[in-house]
Design a protein that fits this description.
Number of domains: 2
Distance between the termini: 27 Å
Bound molecules: zinc ion
Number of helices: 7
Oligomer: single chain
CATH superfamily of the largest domain: Peptidoglycan recognition protein-like
Largest sheet: 5 strands, mixed
Order of helices and strands: HHHHEHEEEHEH
CATH topology of the largest domain: Lysozyme-like
Number of strands: 5
């Protein structure tokens, strides 16, 4: 649930604090003040760990930026919400994908803001206030959401999304659409001069079949 904290209102964070108090009765009570301090942070980490989710190696990098930014204007002009696939087998690990960016491509920033694993968990890799490396030439104005998978056993493009991945894609898009009402939703391959098949499905028809306008 807290993967979406970036663009939550204070009252939404208060609801989460109340939920954390109920879910973690053995931890110190959180004051439902809508602000994430050390106790809320510890509770979020405990909640994640107890659910068996991948631990966040660098909490401040993944989640920290939103808190001071909450009441300030958003620092980037977001024009595009872009869906990607990782162009991997569906069971590739986040660690292997991150290693590829770091070691093989020499990237300092990750390729996407979120990477959705087969179980539907959206792993936050970069605060949306900062750019990630999804589409060359468009990163400063884009938010990138990717799912693990996108190719078949023979290396050919294939929509390998699980139902859980689809649900999470739609949830993120609906939340981001509220915050960025004018942003266009499109797939990586819909940008000019892109020769990739990413994300291995037609984004516009799929989001519109699910009640989300691609071009507001
Ligand atoms: Zn892509």
């Amino acid at each position: 649930m807290f993967l979406y904290l970036y663009h939550m209102t204070r009252s939404e964070i208060q609801q989460i604090q109340t939920a954390l108090n109920a879910a973690l009765p053995d931890l110190p009570r959180l004051a439902p003040d809508g602000l994430i301090g050390a106790k809320s942070k510890a509770a979020l980490m405990a909640w994640e760990t107890r659910r068996g989710l991948a631990p966040v190696a660098d909490f401040e990098r993944a989640y920290g930026v939103m808190f001071p930014a909450q009441e300030k204007p958003f620092p980037r002009n977001i024009k595009y919400l872009v869906l990607h696939c990782a162009a991997t087998q569906p069971d590739a690990t986040i660690e292997s994908i991150q290693r590829y960016w770091r070691v093989n491509l020499g990237w300092k920033a990750p390729g996407y803001h979120w990477l959705i694993s087969a179980d539907g968990v959206a792993h936050a890799l970069q605060p949306i206030e900062k750019s990630s490396n999804g589409v060359a030439g468009y990163n400063s104005t884009s938010i990138h959401i990717s799912y693990i998978g996108g190719i078949d056993r023979n290396g050919k493009p294939k929509d390998t999304r699980t139902e859980a991945q689809k649900v999470t894609q739609l949830r993120l898009l609906r939340e981001l659409r509220v915050k960025f009402p004018k942003a266009r939703i499109l797939g990586h391959r819909d940008f000019p001069s892109v020769s990739k098949a990413c994300p291995s499905f037609d984004v516009k028809s799929w989001v519109e079949a699910n009640g989300i306008k691609a071009n507001p």
